Amino acid sequence: MFTQAELDLEKGLEMRKRVLSGILASEETYLSHLEALLLPMKPLKAAATTSQPVLTVQQIETIFFKVPELYEIHKEFYDSLLPRVQQWSHHQRVGDLFQKQVNPIYLLSKNSLLYKPVDRVTRSTLVLHDLLKHTPSSHPDYPLLQDALRISQNFLSSINEESTPRRQSMTVKKGENRQLLKDSFMVELVEGARKLRHVFLFTDLLLCAKLKKQIGGKSQQYDSKWYIPLSDLTFQTAEESEPLPIPQAPDEELDAIKIKISSLRSEIQRERRANKGSKAMERLKKKLSEQELLLLLNSPNMPLRVHNRSGKSYIFLISSDYERAEWKEVIREQQKKCFKTFSLTSMELQMLTNSCLKLQTVHQLPLTVNKEEDESTGLYGFLNVIVHSASGLKQSLNLYCTLEVDSFGIFVNKAKTRVYRYTTEPKWNEEFEIELEGSQTLRLLCYEKSYNKAKMNKEDGESTDRIMGKGQIALDPPMLQGKDWQRTVIPMNGIEVKISMKFTSREFSLKRMSSRKPMGVFGVNISSVTKRERSKVPYIVRQCLEEIERRGMEEVGIYRVSGVATDIQALKTAFDTNNKDVSVMMSEMDVNAIAGTLKLYFRELPEPLFTDELYPNFAGGIALSDSVAKESCMLNLLLSLPEPNLVTFLFLLDHLKRVAEKESVNKMSLHNLATVFGPTLLRPAEKDSKIPTNPTQPITMGDSWSLEVMSQVQVLLYFLQLETIPTPDSKRQSILFSTEV
Q1: The model scores a pTM over 0.70
Q2: Which residues, listed in sequence order, are joined to residue 447 by a DSSP beta bridge?
Q3: From CA 295, how far away is CA 255, in angstroms rounded?
Q4: CA–CA separation, 207 vs 229, rounded Å?
């Protein structure tokens, strides 16, 4: 006898197969129609080159526009789907095939207004709804189908938005069509100054334009700054171009902008709840847009250098390797089809620039004022990600992956797997804990490791490591709401990377709890540990700092880049059980895991290093405007800490200053270190936290949290920036290495 659950599973399996059989039959009919169109195309093309052509080559291209490409897309989909349906089983996946099909159709339809393919995507969207209805949420195909549905719906939404008549291409000489492939707002470096540009990639050229200010109710207009024919465009490394320093805003300035943004967002929320007049709201929104624009201009620091063979070079500043690779890929792919150089007349350039308003796909900057009121503000908390394995590689390589997430609209590299040596099927199975601050997207990049150190290009942050694939996934709150791991596949350039994700919101991740193992060190009061060890600074702190000083001071992103979670847990257990081999274990582990263990120790203290009692006073002291009063207040508070807390903090403080001395190599400034350690050392226990909770939004937290975090960062940064801390001799002597430490 079958249970009801087993019967439901069988029924769902059968329903999925029935739905897919229907889509196979539909695809077969569509392919036969496309084949019928292709039949006369070949003889017509052959006749077009004779003295008596039936149709010209241009007419043939117009009549049969994109038919061969559509045929290839649907043929590949059909050929991949058919064997899977024929070998149908409980574990069979099809979501990846729908993902692969929608993207190329989107590119064709977006630039060509091909409405029949749009109809096919509409049908696929309905099919995906049916498949999801009959697929258990625990099935490995479920997240793939969800993602395919999201892509399809986004595509259809963009088509609907563009249903008003607008051009996707413009006619140029000899009846050819110049089509828009990609456009985006970017930051250009011009004579040492950052300028906001709108960049348009057409089928034959790259155009950089500036959006003119609207005056007197006039419609928006673009002003052309420069263009490069793709046949003349090359990418330069820092070594090939003239040395040009990239002006960077100090981290403190960027942090101050973020504080203003968070504060203004909170004010806008209060105004909205109070239903106050629109004038006050408009003033706040204007100020918010100004600060967000300032952040967008000053945050990107990764150069993308483009060069015109006829002379001039240009530099764009981008926030992440993902975006830089995206632009390079699409340009290089299109360059394979561009052979002739050309120049535009001033009239042609003006016409092209004018067409950008109708052709653009990115209409607005990513500012709060341009978003819907109910749009998600992103996730705040911790995302655990397991990078399992990769498949689809055609040759054995040395491979590793990096993970990026966004915060305030800027993407930051958060984690890196180890290099898996010479294989076509790397199996990392590494877990990382990534802190999210209003994050909406997780990006994953797969690199081939290069061991040729002579070719490292440190100025660009771009080594000879080659990007083999890249992909991203939306951090969807409903999908991440549960406590279970969500397994998914990220497809990228023929490679598939399997990952699992689990999210813990701020309200749960912030709890400081006492350990149930009083003889351990994690979750145990620092005074109890130092008393038991007869030391001034806990053994775990001394061991971790010693190992990092030995081999981690030049590690890029030390303390910022996540260590492997399983390694961190192994070290945690070793320290908790007083394992005598802990120093040997540490010497064999990645230095980021040791840094992660130290951060975890401070995060799990039942009371923060700066204590619950003094935390409000530190928060108040850092807000003082009078510098003399602030110094007096902050130093007095610091010296009021219990001796184990004070000595441990001073010991850590000296170490962090030494790390920052290597900033040119490890990219960790005092501010970066304060950002990492501030909340860890100051965040109070849950009962003392000022963080509001909203039961209707259990996994998103607003800007009041950001303001509190930034206050904690500022407190630590204040002490890091002090040249010396005048402490009593007895306490200062305590931090020197001796038999008592």
Answers
A1: no
A2: 400, 467
A3: 9
A4: 9
